[in-house]
Specification:
The protein is of the alpha/beta class and 307 residues long. It folds into two domains: 47-243, Rossmann fold, CATH 3.40.50.300; 248-301. Helix content is 50%, strand content 11%. The protein is built from ten helices and seven strands. A seven-stranded mixed sheet has the order 2-1-4-5-6-3-7. α4 links the parallel β4 (136-139) and β5. α6 (210-219) runs antiparallel to α7, α8 (248-261) packs across α9 and α8 packs across α10.
């Protein structure tokens, strides 16, 4: 009897040990699964890597080593808007009061090109003075607007000044992400960081289509209040710069500026005639149409478009 009792102890101990190992293995698997589900800690961005970045919605700033921009001298027919935006950007870079800017109006007239050119021009001025850190340009895509507060959290603590730029910003009827933008620009409890400015381009003055606003008036119980809520987004931009269709003379000046800059051997009345014919086939005159004509002309003449 005693032998049977003594012989059962090792079996019981072995069973308990096996059960303990099984529980430990299960807990290890659960812990590993939770680590995989947990969001990865994002590395702090290296703002010295470039002067321009693209915001990724997962919380990463991708550096842009070479920005696709146009020389400021090639932007014709928008002198007043150019001077106003550059002055506003310079004040912001110097730490003085400045306004968020909305560049709205006719398509292809250089709205986004002006933002990028102003950034480059101000940085060139800062570099000559050698007394301030370069101004950073951060592009955020329209569909990532809801992640804007996360971007603000990253830039708020950085020792640089930032222009957050959204190209072709507009909102549809069922889109409520504009509320995130309203809170960031003005009205949020934290407010916009002192070192961040927001520039946006749009074909719409109020960032929403006219038929959408008319529909709000016809279907809402309090149409005035509903429309005011949405129109108030554009009011958050202290600086409105309107871009309008260019005249024929301005269009020819754009073409001649590109031709001279890239040393394309085509001048005079023949160049003017071909440029106007190109604009007629496109049904519009704009900086974009002028650039498309110059690309076609350079291709036909075998000229490489290199700065």
């Amino acid at each position: 009897m005693a032998k049977q009792k003594s012989s059962s102890k090792p079996a019981s101990a072995a069973k308990g040990k096996t059960a303990g190992n099984g529980e430990s293995a299960t807990l290890a698997r659960i812990a590993a699964a939770l680590e995989r589900l947990a969001p990865r800690e994002t590395a702090a961005p290296n703002f010295s890597a470039a002067d321009a970045f693209v915001w990724q919605p997962e919380g990463r700033l991708a550096p842009v080593p070479h920005v696709n921009r146009v020389e400021m001298s090639l932007l014709k027919g928008i002198d007043r808007m150019r001077d106003t935006l550059v002055e506003n950007t310079e004040r912001f870079a110097r730490g003085l009061p400045a306004n968020n800017a909305l560049l709205w109006g006719a398509r292809g007239m250089g709205k986004s090109s002006l933002v990028k050119a102003a950034h480059a021009a101000v940085n060139a001025t800062l570099e000559k003075k050698g007394s301030q850190a370069p101004l950073k340009l951060v592009e955020i895509h329209r569909e990532d607007i809801e992640s804007l507060p996360n971007l603000m959290a990253i830039t708020r603590a950085a020792p640089f000044r930032f222009i957050v730029f959204c190209d072709d910003l507009s909102f549809d009827a069922d889109d409520t992400s504009y509320k995130s933008l309203k809170a960031v620009l003005e009205g949020g409890i934290e407010g916009r960081p002192e070192n961040v400015m927001f520039y946006a381009t749009s074909n719409r003055r109020h960032l929403m289509s006219r038929d959408m606003m008319e529909n709000e008036r016809s279907t809402a119980i309090n149409p005035g209040e509903t429309v005011e809520e949405k129109v108030s987004l554009s009011d958050r931009f202290g600086l409105w710069l309107g871009f309008h269709r260019c005249s024929q003379d301005e269009f020819i000046a754009m073409v001649e500026g590109y031709v001279a800059h890239y040393k394309i051997p085509k001048r005079g009345e023949e160049l003017k005639r071909e440029a106007l014919e190109w604009a007629t086939t496109r049904g519009s005159r704009s900086g974009r149409v002028a650039w498309q004509f110059v690309q076609d002309l350079a291709g036909r003449l075998g000229v490489a478009l290199k700065d």
